[in-house]
Design brief:
heterotrimer, A mainly alpha (271), B mainly alpha (189), C mainly alpha (82), B: 189 residues, mainly alpha, 2 domains, 9 helices, globular, C: 82 residues, 5% strand, DUF6620 (chain B)
Chain lengths: 271, 189, 82
């Protein structure tokens, strides 16, 4: 394969081979980058549309499409890795095995070749990861606030409209429940079971995510610190849990135990 | 038995019951069917299924999560829920049996499932469609093979890696062909 | 970028999109249901279940609604045992 190594001490062919390999490597990575850009350009507006049109509360059609696109980027990164191993690292190993000593001028040349090829690959990796982020963020954040506000309004208008299955007396649902809950008829004391709407059940499912959206600026303040200030992290956690508890007050007791645990984790593992 | 307060039954439902119930729901059993089988009403069951995960979140030792995995894997042996099947099960009994007894078969399908996602296909649905194995049975197998696969990795990592890579190549080719190739097929060094 | 490549990528993305949208969601679609209220009468004697009698047994004939021992949960508490 690398026949030119046979001629060890004066080998213009080797220099030429290095130059050509480097050029091909650069061109190959650039083509992959351009292809990624083409895919993303075509995909991003469509990803947005699919997200907006996806009536599934878990947005699974969007999830499948996104996974497919990320799979193609992964495939291109793998392709680059395979070529790097075979054509670049393979070349370097073969060359190193043949060179007479570290003082050879080829050594310096080879060092530069390796550095240039690795640097270019790092740039490629950074670019591909940037495209992955673009795809992941294309649809934007799911708006959890609007459906939550809408649900609260609906609940206010609906909460008095239930009747006891035993005596038909009017039952007011005391507060927004997120799971099936027994409610006692104030007239005949019968235990009725209130089943919340699907939307209300989703609030419980999304409560933490909504609380995180509301306090994202505090997490950002913590994460952008150099060095990171643990006090800011605790401040974020407290605010996030306050929001979480305000969305699903019935879970406050359990949430607070989880909050305690996160504080302990921070002490044990991070400081 | 253990005095760990985090392991105390919730409304009489033990961690073993809860774990088996999760596995069975993965096989398509409804909450109503689970609650009925366990002899509780829906409001009781829904509190139970909210509170067991809370216990896991509170447990710094990961003991409860570990036990959950063991009980989940043993769902078929649960005295009440073990034989419970959804009404309209499209399962393939032979494959369900095989994935629990044939490690290589499980490992191959696990790779296939992941590759499916990479090609925009819901892997869980694909496994159900192609092999008649629901996600509940698939995860039972995953829980039960976990320790052995970790040991295999420790004893012969290269062999493990080669096998995984071969499965990946097989299924990536299959899914790529089905979508008319990968987007960068024409780009070569 | 060339128009040919642009079109190729557009058609790839459109096919992927169609495939993503056409697949059924695992476990079926999420059915949106409205809030509702119901109650369980004693299947044995037909009596309603009053708060003071607890949730687990019928206050009139002793029928067992639930075999379990209720603990302190979210809304349901120990006091709700019959």
């Amino acid at each position: 394969m690398f026949d030119f190594f046979k001629k060890k001490y004066d080998n213009p062919m080797l220099a030429e081979e290095m130059r050509q390999t480097q050029d091909r490597w650069f061109a190959f990575l650039q083509k992959l980058e351009e292809r990624t850009e083409e895919v993303c350009e075509a995909a991003i507006p469509q990803l947005k549309e699919v997200f907006e049109q996806d009536t599934d509360p878990y947005k699974r059609a969007h999830g499948r499409m996104l996974a497919g696109l990320l799979g193609q980027i992964r495939q291109m990164r793998q392709k680059a890795n395979e070529v790097r191993n075979e054509k670049i690292i393979g070349f370097i190993y073969a060359a190193e095995a043949e060179f007479p000593g570290i003082n050879s001028s080829y050594h310096d040349m080879l060092y530069k070749f390796r550095q240039a090829c690795y640097d270019r690959h790092n740039v490629f990796e950074d670019n591909e990861q940037r495209y992955e982020m673009l795809l992941q963020n294309a649809a934007g954040e799911q708006d959890l606030e609007t459906p939550y506000r809408k649900l609260l309004e609906e609940f206010e208008s609906l909460r008095d409209r239930f009747a006891c299955t035993q005596c038909s007396g009017n039952i007011t649902i005391p507060r927004l429940f997120f799971i099936a809950t027994y409610v006692t008829c104030p007239h005949c004391q019968t235990q009725n079971t209130f089943h919340p709407s699907t939307e209300a059940q989703m609030v419980l499912h999304n409560a933490r995510a909504l609380a995180e959206q509301r306090t994202a600026h505090l997490l950002k303040a913590y994460e952008s610190g150099t060095p990171k200030d643990p006090a800011l992290y605790r401040q974020y956690l407290r605010a996030m849990f306050d929001e979480w508890n305000s969305i699903v007050p019935d879970m406050t007791e359990e949430n607070e135990k989880f909050h305690e645990r996160l504080l302990k984790d921070q002490q044990n593992y991070h400081h | 038995m253990s005095e760990n307060p985090l392991l105390a039954p919730i409304h009489g439902i033990t961690l073993e019951d809860y774990s088996a119930a999760c596995a069975k729901m993965g096989n398509g059993l409804s909450e109503d069917a689970i609650a009925k089988a366990l002899g509780v009403e829906l409001p009781v069951w829904q509190e139970v299924s909210l509170l067991w995960p809370e216990r896991m979140k509170q447990d710094e030792t990961f003991h409860i999560v570990t036990l959950f995995g063991q009980h989940f894997g043993a769902a078929d042996q649960h005295p009440i829920l073990g034989n419970l099947q959804p009404d309209a099960s499209a399962g393939n009994a032979g494959n369900v049996e095989r994935i629990k007894n044939d490690k290589a078969y499980y490992q191959e399908l696990e790779v296939a499932r992941q590759v499916a996602y990479e090609y925009g296909v819901d892997g869980a649905q694909w496994i159900a469609d192609e092999y008649g194995i629901s996600i509940g049975d698939f995860q039972i197998a995953a829980m039960n093979w976990g320790d052995e696969i970790r040991k295999d990795m420790q004893t012969d990592f290269d062999n493990y890696n080669e096998t995984q890579a071969a499965y990946q190549e097989k299924y990536r080719k299959q899914f790529a062909d089905a979508q008319g190739g990968d987007v960068a097929d024409d780009i070569t060094f | 970028m060339s128009d040919e490549n642009k079109n190729k990528m557009l058609s790839y993305v459109e096919r992927l999109r169609q495939k993503a949208v056409d697949q059924k969601n695992y476990g079926g679609e999420v059915n949106k249901e409205d809030a509702k209220i119901d109650a369980r009468d004693c299947p044995n004697c037909g009596a309603g279940r009053a708060y003071r009698d607890g949730l687990t047994n019928c206050g009139y004939c002793g029928f067992t609604f639930m075999q379990v021992k209720l603990t302190d949960g979210i809304h349901i508490k120990k006091e709700n045992n019959s």
